[in-house]
Design brief:
Radius of gyration: 21 Å
Shape: globular
Structural class: alpha/beta
Order of helices and strands: HEEEHHEHEHEEEHHHHEHEHH
Helix content: 40-55%
Bound molecules: 5'-O-[(R)-(carboxyoxy)(hydroxy)phosphoryl]adenosine, zinc ion
Strand order of the largest sheet: 3-2-1-4-5
Number of strands: 10
Distance between the termini: 41 Å
Length: 349
Amino acid sequence: MNAEINEGEKKDIYILAIESSCDETAASVVKNGRYVLSNIISSQIDLHTLYGGVVPEIASRKHIENIDAVITEAMKESGKTFDDIDAIAVTYGPGLVGALLVGLAEAKALAYALGKPLVGVHHIEGHISANYIQDVNFEPPYMALVVSGGHTNLVYVEDYGKYEIMGKTRDDAAGEAFDKVARVIGMGYPGGPKIEKAARLGNKDAIKFPHVFLDGDTYDFSFSGLKSAVLNYVNKMNMLGEKIVPEDVAASFQYSVIDVLVTKTMKAAAEKGITKIAMAGGVSANSALREAMQKACDEHGYSLNIPAPILCTDNAAMIGAAGYYEYIAGRRDGLELNAVPNLKLGERI
Ligand code: KG4
Ligand code: ZN
């Protein structure tokens, strides 16, 4: 078919996306769910580092201070005007309620003032959808490992918006374990990047921490036992008056987490007969995890898609990608849309 006629037939869809579920205030303009025209992220990490973790009240206040400027910047950088925007997508859960409400109120105000549709997006659906930006040809079905600060899920993505959760953490999320272990060995917040850096200088076989697979054929995860094992190890060494080598603790801990994540992902893919794997969430920025997953996929003959690190941690471009698929599937929210701190994946509220 003539390309020009083809283009004329299909109108481009521009989504303005807003994300404020935790400690990043972010806005982005995304074209057709795949092309990022702008991706502005105002991180509060330095501020929360002072307190050793995210302080919800401070997060909300900072979102309020930053959100207008972040949206203005995202629009400016996109080269588009509000007239060009087809819909406003916004994260409405899961996350910190006060933080979510800031982005949601802003999105509702914009949708109302501009007369544009409002589309609520699930934060984890956003993380998963970052894969559609990374590879514009990437499509379901695939197996996604979602590893963030609040979630650890093995998700079979059968189609856009159609998810089967095959496994989830029974206690701590993978990112939470990174953050807690970093605190125990004196590395501070956020733990993930600090552990990753230290682990590069350490020996992953130095300390035998448990690799928790749980009983039976479950795809669930558990990281609280590993966290306790690290704590017990550090306490024992302190009592004995022996010095710990933080790099070895970091490397051995990280190895334990990665081994379990990769092994379970391969098993879940095999059960579903799926050869396409994707990763999502802040922990998938971890280079050791990326390498280990790539190696396992190569061995199994599976393909692997991982978003660039900036698309793994919280951002609004991923909300724009997810919002696009929700929008073309017909989702429209009213101004009564509320923040849902514990929103389940696939749940419609
Ligand atoms: O997805 P995300 O940005 O926010 C949530 O939705 O939770 O994930 C944040 C989590 C934090 O626990 C952080 O320590 C972890 O992702 N993280 C990492 C790395 N970068 C961020 N964990 C391991 N290695 C990293 N390089
Ligand atoms: Zn996130």
